[in-house]
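Trying the structure run again after the queue cleared.
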Amino acid sequence: MINVLGNPHTTSIDDENLWFYFDRKIASGKLIKFGETDLLENNVLVLNFDKYGVVLNKEFFSKEDMKRIKYSEMKTENPVSKQSFVTSFMQSVRQKMYGKRKF
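Done. Tokens:
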């Protein structure tokens, strides 16, 4: 599979035999949309291998399939990425000081 498709974009956390390949094509939006991008294709290929490297199962999801998937509304809090009030205040001040500068 690696010779044909290359290394997988990611593998499952729990199962190293579950590989994921992603294919996304976007195009610049029209002038009316002020530079927004349009998602033309959003494909995901999921391959499941047995312990000998033989493909057990393959699933292909297209852009239309992704529209039918319901995602969880729950959010995970990450205390590492949370910034203190002082840090975010100082970053805001720095942005205001240097934001309009022309170099």
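The radius of gyration is 21 Å. Worth checking whether this holds up in the mutant runs.
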